[in-house]
Amino acid sequence: MRERKKARTRAAIQSHALRLFTAQGYAETTIEQIAAAAEVSQSTFFRYFPTKEDTVLYDRLDPVLMRAFVEQPAELTPLQAVRAACAQVFARLDAEESELERARQRLVFSVPELRNRMIEHIAAGLGMLAEAAAERAGRDPGDFTVRVWSGAVIGVVFAAYFSAAEAPENLVDVIDKAVTLLEDGLPL
Question: What residue intervals traverse the membrane (predicted)?
C-alpha cells in the first residue's frame, strides 16, 4: 500500500512538471510551481526528484518494459521479446499517459541540459536490460555476451529515439524498426 502511494506521488509530481514545462517552458518553470501544482511541499518534491531535470529524465516505463521483456514467451528470441514487450507496454498506455510520455521525449530532445544528462540514464538502462536479459536467458548479468547484447539493443533504441525526434513518428514504430534492423544483422 505504501509503495503504491509513493508511486502515485512520484507520477503526480512528474505529470504536473511535464504539463508545466509544456505550457510555460522548461527554463521558466520552477520547482516551487511544480510542488504547488502537485500539492506537495518542496521537501516532498526533493524526496522523489533530486533535481528539476530528474522529473523529465525519470522513465517510469523502464521497469515495466523490463518486466514485460522477461515475461515474453520462451519461444521468442530475445530481440523478438524486446519488440513484443515494447508493443505490449505502449499499447496499454491511455491517451493521457501517451501524451505525457511524448511530452517527456520532446523535452529531452529540445533542452540541451536534458540531452546531456540522458547519457547517465542510458548507462542505467544498459544495466537494467542486462539484468532482464540474464534473467530471461538464465545467465549471469555480468556475462560478456549478455552485456554486449544489451549494449547493442540500447544503442539501436537510442538511435531510434533521436531519429524519432528528427522525423516525428510513433516512437514505438521507430524502435520496432530499429530492433528489426538489429535482428536482421544491421544490413546497410
Answer: 144-164
